[in-house]
Amino acid sequence: MIRPVSIPLPQTPFARFRLLFLGFAVAGALLAAVAIPGGEASPVSKLAGIVLAVALAVYWIVGYRRGTFSLALEPVEAYAVFVVLHAAPGDPFLPLLGVLFRSLYGGFARAVARWALWMAALLAAHAGRGHEQFEADLARVAAVALAPVLAQALLVALKTSETIQRRLNSIVQNSTDVVTIVGADHRVRWQAESIRGVLGHAPDAIVGTRVHELVHPEDRSALDAYFTDAEGKPEHRRSLTLRLAHGAGGHRHFDVVAANRLHDPSVEGFVLNMRDATDRRELEDELRALAAQREHDALHDPLTGLANRRKLFARLEDTTTAARAAKTKLALLLIDLDHFKELNDTLGHHAGDRLLREIGPRLEACAPEAELVARVGGDEFAVLMPLDTAVEAAEVMATKLGAAIEEPFRFQGMTMLVRASVGIAMFPEHGRDVESLMQRADIAMYSAKSRGVGYEVYSASRDGHSRARLALIGELPEAIESGQIVVHYQPKFDLQTGVIRGAEALVRWEHPQFGLLGPGAFLPLAEQTGLMRPLTLRVLDDALAQCSRWLAAGLSLPVAVNLGAPNLLDLGLPVDVKALLEKWELDPSMLQLEITETIVAADPVRVIEIMNKLGELGIELSLDDFGTGSSSLAYLRELPVQELKIDKSFVLGMDEDPEAATIVQTIVDLAHNLGLRAVGEGIETDEAYRLLAESGCDFGQGFLMGRPMPAGELAELALKTPVK
């Protein structure tokens, strides 16, 4: 059985065009074959013409399927045309239709050459048919002359179109963008192949499904909103950001440009051009996170994580504006750590930084209702209270903050106590803008520090004092160097004989403008500015020099010098003291160093270590202000002291308060039981003198026997007859 010739269905416009012209050419050849038997040619010519006409049809079909024709067979093909035309009667369409089909192969030059060869075959085939036929053939030759040109032009146009189409298809199908056409029923009508590589879906599986199945449930409303808005609006476009389902699971962010092309017959749907935005979103998220981090860093302290000065000022600006509008109050608390610089200098910045990091959580835990907790700078912090905070509530909060800060701080096996001074400024009473509130909270804080109280509310009367304090801070270093720092001496009496047994060195500042200033006016400044070490060494040097001069004059008066907290954290102090004793050629027994009980309680381990080193030099040590604390009782047996000084608060009241007298007696007995001397401070009445002497107290100091005085006056007093 003969099988029909199978011709594949063309996929491109050009291939379909060739197939169309093939059909015309084959039809022309077969029609010629059918017409040949009715002609006047010989039977042999007729048979040859029919065979060659059918052969041409078959040859063309085979060449079409192969996509090419042999150049060597071009003359044979022309000869076959000659034979067919010679045998066929009339004027068949074979030359026109055949040339049109064959001009689509071989290029323009071959098409023209083929036309010339076929037209020569035409004229030769009809050579014996007379002049009239010849003229008709010439007209046909001229008419067919355009066939190669038109065919080649069409060939170029179609190939160009196909190239563009293939390029577009390749771009669409292989692009990282995904093109989807959605019908009016919101079902996918066409899906680009690129969805396979981008989202892992087979295009065929997507076509026919609702586009919503690709979209995250939370984003479907945005897509529906576009469909609703685009209804009846050709070319209506909108940019969307949708999360699309990935074939491997999960969703990815896509930027979608949707366009209404329902009116376009070639589309008839919504065109969704979708681009993967995952990388962009990740980059945007990173940039947003970086911007947020930079903004956070710009507004927060890197050490503590608290808000910084810039954020505090901005929040103050907002809250004062709100308070002004609401006609209500606002409280700002400024906190400064006492003796922080000495701790930093002695234990190192690592310890100071660790302490500062611990302060923040304490403040936040203590004031959860606060509008803001900030580190202003250095060892200064601020707490901004919420609107409508009264001054009484601010004072309560200041007390709580101070207590929270005073909780023991442990570092490398040491326990340290840190205290703070708090200044309170109220809006609008003390200031109506950020600058004035900060300034007056600062004034109140330094006032609290200088007075030794935990907190203080701003008072206009202390403004001048604050300015003077700032001036003194700048002048103090020069005062230490230039000799404005002087030492007065308060005598220490034997309570049984009335003889002066020694003198306590008390520092004064001979200020050129303000006159003689007591220690309360500048010692806190020295502690705040790190000047305690040079100030203490100046006092020690002057006191030992005076002791040396007294000895030369025949007066053996040991001198006592007070040490502050920064001195007892200074590991170099014993070396400095030893050098000064050697400088003035004094026996260590001529120097006594006084340490307050509160200093010992702050860090007993470190203080006892330094006291032992001082004791090893042969220096006597005295525990000052005894009775005002409690923690040192546990360490009293370990302290290398030779003397207890009873705090004047007990001595001043003992002549009227039996309980105070009992406490004094108890301290004297405790000192003697431990093998220590007892010294009573603050003796201002004869009755207090008598009671102390009767209690067995060894020595005494007070205004009754002698106030602090220059060295010359004390020498004169010591040479007088002892007072009974």
From TrEMBL:
Residue stretches making up the PAS domain: 164-223
What residues does the GGDEF domain cover? 328-463
Q: In terms of domain of life, where is this protein from?
A: Bacteria
In what residue span(s) does the EAL domain sit?
469-722
User: InterPro entries this protein is in?
Assistant: Biofilm_reg_signaling (IPR052155), EAL_dom (IPR001633), EAL_sf (IPR035919), GGDEF_dom (IPR000160), Nucleotide_cyclase (IPR029787), PAS (IPR000014), PAS-like_dom_sf (IPR035965), PAS_4 (IPR013656)
Annotated transmembrane regions: 45-62
Protein name according to UniProt = EAL domain-containing protein
